[in-house]
Amino acid sequence: MASRIIPVDTFDLVIFGGTGDLARRKILPSLLRRFRAGQMPPGARIIACARAALDDAGYRDLAARSIAEFGGAEREDADLVAAFLDRLHYIAVDVTGDGGWAELAAIMRPDVVRAFYFSVRPELFGPIAERLHLRDIAEDESRIVVEKPFGRDLASAQGLNASLAAHFEERQIYRIDHYLGKETVQNLMAVRFANMLFEPLWNNHYIDHIQITVAETVGVAGRGNYYDGTGAIRDMVQNHLMQLLCLTAMEPPAQFEADMVRDEKLKVIRALRPVAPEDIVLGQYAAGADPSYRDDVANPESSTESFVALRCTIGTWRWAGVPFYLRTGKRMKARSSEITVVFQQLGHRIFGEDLASHRNVLSIRLQPNDGIDLRVTVKERGPGGMRLVDMPLDLTFADMEADQGEAGVDAYERLIMDVIRGDQTLFMRGDEVEAAWAWTDPIVAICAGHDRIPQFYEQGSNGPDDALMLLHREGRRWREIKG
Ligand code: NAD
Questions:
Q1: Residue (of 173, 183, 145, 113) closest to 23 by Cα position
Q2: What is residue 150's three-state secondary structure?
Q3: Is 132 left (phi over 0), alpha (psi -120 to 50) or beta?
Q4: Which protein residue has the closest C-alpha to ligand 1 atom 1?
Q5: What is the CA(124)–ligand 1 centre distance, in A?
Q6: 94 C-beta closer than 6 A to ligand 1
Q7: Of 98, 118, 119, which is best to mutate to test ligand 1, by the most ligand atoms within 8 angstroms of its C-beta?
Q8: Chain-wide mean pLDDT for the chain?
Q9: What is the pTM of this model?
């Protein structure tokens, strides 16, 4: 099938922090893939800004090395890479000082989309926004893109929002949570809102509980400094898991339009009940094949969690009485992100079966092998009477994509193109981020209590035992974490 490219207008994408890890690892390789797909119009340019004293040629060398290291199969195509590198420019800018801004202003063109990607520490968001505005580099239609972490609590998020709002309208601000750019996350909305099958069952009459798991096999070595002052709740729950929860639980928006979708997500966050202390389990990975968490962060006394499991509830008509269990951790059994919807058991048995052991389960896998599977109870084949067995109806999207030229668009590719297009649907709005922190702050406060020492867990496991108990005590069990 031919790839389906929605054309975008010619643009100048300015990347502050253009020499940084995120730019080299994600942004440049993503742009190269969009370039290969034919989505970068002939005049589109990428203008990297950072502190290093480089010129265009020096930056193109750096970009070529990044693409060689982090690019996909397209990096093998030397002509393609060379043509892409021609689109790159570099200006040395000190974002907290005066140097470089006049040069940046001079290079910008009228009548093209201007997008400014703040791939820098959050403390620099305000100074950059201010200079873009005061030096008339940003126009009324320009967009700014900001990375996570967007604050570390409600007060700091409000501070960041205020520093951006002083110079930009909300319609110009794109707060990235790359989870929202994942193919399956959008498919979650398609499954819910484009099928007759699920939405009538999507409530407390038919759903027993929902699990959201984001498990990683990596540890925190290399980012210990940042992570040890942050922990899994701030690093993962407030943003990624919260977004997945919102999309799973929200009411259907009247239309698939940015503010309508975000209004519905916001209502979910506001309806989340405070989490009780006994519904929070913290863990920290012990030494195993790899060093312990405490070794990784070089802090032998650390009580920061590398794992958290939570039981939460949403106080709405639809979700009253349905627990949402969230868990995320490092150095776990497998790399796996999944939303699992466990339906209630049937009220009456006619086959003599154990009703508790046969339930419909819908799981939406973000990674690996993104796709959806629905566990359905059927008769076991062969003689021997009516024996029942649960079988998955499995839809792995990678199999579909193999037939479609546009295989595997990465989250960053999609999100950057949405910025150029001016579509904010998959970006977090300021009020949404603040509401998420307002819910998360008390959880962090409970965890900071002196008696909340994380339980050690084995590397390559499902996390600490208490996390299993969180469900066992209610007669439920976590879905197996599979890579
Ligand atoms: P980094 O430290 O590798 O790069 C920082 C960049 O900012 C460099 O290009 C540096 O030159 C530039 N910079 C710093 N101070 C400057 C100044 N005064 N003037 C001009 N330029 C300046 O950081 P990173 O890992 O690329 O992360 C950037 C942002 O993205 C951070 O907010 C980070 O939390 C976020 N983020 C990073 C990743 C990742 O995978 N690296 C993932 C998610 C979010």
A1: 145
A2: coil
A3: alpha
A4: 20
A5: 10
A6: yes
A7: 119
A8: 93
A9: 0.94
Active site residues: 240
Cα 147 to averaged position of ligand 1 atoms, centre (Å): 9
Q: What is the pLDDT of residues 10-40, one digit of tens each?
A: 999 999 999 999 999 999 999 999 999 999 9
CA of 24 to the centre of ligand 1 (A): 10
C-beta of 95 in contact with ligand 1 (< 6 A):
yes
The alpha carbon of 463 and the centre of ligand 1 are apart by a number of angstroms equal to 31
Of 177-186, 212-221, 260-269, which gets the smallest average pLDDT?
Answer: 177-186
Question: DSSP H helical segments within 283-426, as ranges?
Answer: 293-296, 397-401, 411-421
Torsion angles phi and psi, residue 146, rounded to 5: -125, 145
Cβ atoms 463, 457 nearer than 8 A? yes
Looking at residue 408, its pLDDT comes to: 56
Taking only the tens place, the pLDDT of each residue in 367-406 is 888 889 999 999 889 887 888 889 999 888 766 654 444 4
Q: Does residue 274 surpass a pLDDT of 60?
A: yes
For 345-371, b/e burial (b = at least 16 CB within 10 A) is eeeeeeeeeeeeebebbbbbbbbebbb
Provide φ and ψ at 377, rounded to 5°: -90, 125
Q: Assign residue 28 a region (left: φ > 0; alpha: ψ between -120 and 50; beta: otherwise).
A: alpha
**Cβ atoms of 416 and 27 closer than 8 Å:** yes
Closest CA to 118 of 107, 136, 130, 109: 130
Assess whether the C-beta atom of 326 lies below 6 angstroms from ligand 1.
no
Atom of ligand 1 nearest to the CA of 52: 11
11-16 vs 113-118, strand pairing mode = parallel
Distance 19 CA to ligand 1 centre (A): 8
354 lines ligand 1 (CB under 6 A): no
Which of 90, 118, 120, when mutated, tests ligand 1's pocket best, judged by the most ligand atoms within 8 Å of its CB?
120
Give the residue from 363, 344, 364 showing the smallest Cα distance to 355.
344
pLDDT at 404: 44
pLDDT exceeds cutoff 50 at 357:
yes
Residue 48: enclosing H or E segment and its boundaries?
strand 45-50
Task: Please determine, for residue 1, whether its predicted confidence score (pLDDT) is greater than 60.
Answer: no
CA 113 to centroid of chain Cα atoms = 26
